[in-house]
Amino acid sequence: MTILPELAAFEAKGHDDMKLRRAAAELLDRQFLHAADRGSPRHYYTIVDEKYWRYFEGLFDALGRKLYRNEREQWVGLLPDFGVYSEATTGLPRMRQAETILLLVMALVYQEKVNIGEVERGAVVRSDTGELFDRYATLLGKERMKDHEFRDLTNEARRRGLVAFGERDDESLDVELFIRPMIMYVVSGDVREAMRRFAGEEERSLDAREREAANGEDANGEDASAPVPANGTGNGHHGETG
Fold this sequence. Notes:
This protein is α+β, with helices and mostly antiparallel strands. The protein folds into two domains: about 5-80; about 90-215, Orthogonal Bundle (Arc Repressor Mutant, subunit A). Helices cover about 50% and strands about 10% of the residues. The protein has a three-stranded antiparallel beta sheet with strand order 1-3-2, covered by helices on one side. Residues about 85-90 and about 220-240 have low confidence and may be disordered.
C-alpha cells in the first residue's frame, strides 16, 4: 500500500511505479540530473514527462524542496524551499568549506565567461582544472590544493550534475571542465556579487605584489629578495615545511 494517492493512481492505471520511485530517489540523491550524463536520461525524461510532473512537484514539495526544469538545456533539479528553510542563504546542500568555495569559484568563472560570450550549446561554459586551481588560490591567497583533494571536490560537483569532464591535456595534465548553468541556481546573486568584488580586490592585490616584487621591494620598502627568517614568518610570507 502506498502513502501517496497519486502514486496509487498511477499503479492502478498500469504505470511502472518503481520507475517513478527510482527517478525520485536519483534526483534526491544527486540534486541535479542532466540528460547528457550516463545513466541519467531515463530518470530525466521520466521526471519532465507531463504525465508525471505534477506528481514529482507534489512529492518534493512535501520534502521542502522546489523542483525546477529547463528542457532546452536538458536538466532538472532541486533547490530548498526558502519558505520552509528560512535560514538557508544558498541552494547548496551542507558541505565542506573547501567544496562550497570551489562551487562559488565555478559560478564566478561561469558568469565571467557568459559576460564575454564564451557560451557553448546548452548554456555550458568551458574551463579546465588549471584555471579553477589558479582562481581558487588567488581568491584565498593560498597554495593550490592537492591534486587528490581537487579531484574529490570536482567529482562531487560532477555527481551533483553541476559539471562534466572533458579531455585531459597530455602536456599540462589539466582536464577540461564544462560548467553547467545550474551552478547559477545554487549560488545566489548576492553571493556571486560578493565573490566578484572579493575576486577583483584579491587580483588587484596580487598585481600590486607582483609589481613590488619586480621592483625588488615589498610593501614595507624592503628588499624582497632578502632571506625569510628560519621560522618562516615575517614580511607576509607563508611558512614552508620540508
